[in-house]
């Protein structure tokens, strides 16, 4: 009788086969299911339960860098917060008490700018609104967006103390920020000075380095001649010194010219002028020797002779006249030695505008030159500036060129595209502007030295982060902490009107702090100065400062009121700070300086940085390109677990890419992981751990090999969690599920699971191992795909609290077996040869299913001895397999990387077992019709067929 007829007319063995059963669905439906888990976690108070579970354990504190409360989350926010969540969850499951207190940055220009925009639309004047009312509107704006962002973060599965976040605008926070400032007041680190700072003429305020980005900008370049009026260098008599600059708008602020003391200069005399040249035959000009040729080409000097050669030192004491001398610029322009002067480009002379450049400022001040006030906060020249009063620095270049040409001072002009600082908010180019500001000294109290030591004492991940921030701190100027705005914590200090001295009195500081605790920073505007000064000082003698603190000082102070004094029970320093790599000059930097200036150490033990998120082509995301990937859209289409999986599957220490194709690939990887969990849940249907227990020593080798792999993975999981290397961990877990399990272990053991008797040791051992696999995988993957693992956990244990309250499994020492692993590597290699041969036979239509085959495997005796023990037919999923200790015959299938092993595929002999589908000679010779001996025994022990 044929197998088909037997199947049609014989007994139905299906009820005796243990097919997997689970209510864990193949299709995830994450967008629908995830909110249900969020609601359940909120109802059960998961974060509180985590804190209760963690009591007494070592604390792990990831201090949250505050995002800005002014709009919907973008994909960079999602990457950052998911990565933080994965770290906190993994540290908790490794046995620590891992707190996560989310926070928000609420002060500053972006919010203020939005309120001003609303005013402009309504035709309202901001300055006509009481400052406290304006600040209230800023506070309301921040609070509204904070609530929006909080819900968007929670939707990503971020677990934290969402009911008690920290905000920089909370009254206790504002009070603590001003107390941190007062520490610098009392130790002498805070001072008032007039220095050039990066200034936004659009936003009318100084900007911090972290608020600046660089873009290409086209500048007008000019070569300008300054006539020599007094010099000890005979060759310079009657000559002109030529400067080159890319900022024509700074010419009204010129007060000097710098030279390099060791640079070789020449004085040339013009002997021939090209068409269009702005010089005359006989003119004498000084410039750096190596730059004369370029100058002549630019200025139309067709021929010249060298009158004299000299060193920069020869110019000492030389006095020039401003090009507009006689037009309101009737002052001497001295020449000074500057160690910053180079001969990379230009002329070897640099014009000095102390109001608009750092080098300019310091050199002029050192030489007793007064710093003029030329440009107002909106970028217009002040009324007293000759020729250009009221004009805007952005638009004045053409007029400057024309005025220089009219004066006979312009030798050449052109344009240059170069990297130039811009405001990261308004995108407008910035200027250097010398204004009175408040600074924290990098050298008073050895702040720079303390910060550099703290950098060396900190763990940086990746390690190159250390060098980056070290070089920044090593060369940075004093920290400008004042802004000319209204929304934020004020620089709440007084200085004496007559002496300019900052008032340093702890009692005054304490009164300010107490008032801020009650009314927040608004107290500075609501209460009279006399209340803060007390009876010891006359308010008429002091200036109350209303500048606003740099928001980076706000966020740099968060460690003080979150880690040290907050209600969350945290500790300082934090275990970890984690933000994008741009924060080496932002939050990492300001936090370092603030903490080192007040505590002498960094506020963190380790710092982890991630890159930026680009589109699939590696381009920056922008609305104009139409390549923005919004996390909300990803969550709505795929679910948050797909976004979380994308985060851990990327090497986030570098820039990452995301887009439709990448998300599809991520969804495919997710399905493999989900199917792994689903298979295990189905295989464990009805599992009784006590009844089915099998000692490791009594297990088949294959099961012991799987346990060994789990012991290897356990070490990897813990090391990667310590290293924050989730990219490598995910890759290994995914490969384990796809290759070691789905394509190997599960494939091999399906027959045992489905067809062996429940009391057979092999089947019980398989179920024991699958229970271990499930327990390890569902917990190891819980920090990654928090919703899916919770669904799987509750599917198996409906009455359980949450997988996220569990710890990573403790792996017994006897699971490790390196010798067995080496043996099974050989078995796996041999199996690849067999499966390759089966695939070839299937392609040639020689067989259909692998169970139709009974191959002959040719290998040296040494190989056969290694693979002895396991049934290789079961391992290769064939009905039989002969081991032949002979040379590989011609025509046998081989693989180049598995030496001396070949396979010839023969058809299996016998009939097809109607229960396990193996083709065996003994089928039909047993009590039960149409089955093999193993299946006959199993059915008999189960009481036969119903």
From TrEMBL:
The keyword Nucleotide-binding applies. A motif ('HIGH' region) lies at residues 67-77. Zn(2+) binds at residues 913, 916, 932, 935. L-isoleucyl-5'-AMP binds at residue 579. It is found in: Cytoplasm. Keywords: Aminoacyl-tRNA synthetase, ATP-binding, Cytoplasm, Ligase, Metal-binding, Nucleotide-binding, Protein biosynthesis, Zinc. Residues 703-853 form the Methionyl/Valyl/Leucyl/Isoleucyl-tRNA synthetase anticodon-binding domain. It catalyses: tRNA(Ile) + L-isoleucine + ATP = L-isoleucyl-tRNA(Ile) + AMP + diphosphate. It comes from the Bacteria. Residues 38-658 form the Aminoacyl-tRNA synthetase class Ia domain. Residues 910-936 form the Zinc finger FPG/IleRS-type domain. Its cofactor is Zn(2+). Its EC number is 6.1.1.5. Catalyzes the attachment of isoleucine to tRNA(Ile). As IleRS can inadvertently accommodate and process structurally similar amino acids such as valine, to avoid such errors it has two additional distinct tRNA(Ile)-dependent editing activities. One activity is designated as 'pretransfer' editing and involves the hydrolysis of activated Val-AMP. The other activity is designated 'posttransfer' editing and involves deacylation of mischarged Val-tRNA(Ile). Monomer. This is Isoleucine--tRNA ligase. It comes from Insolitispirillum peregrinum.
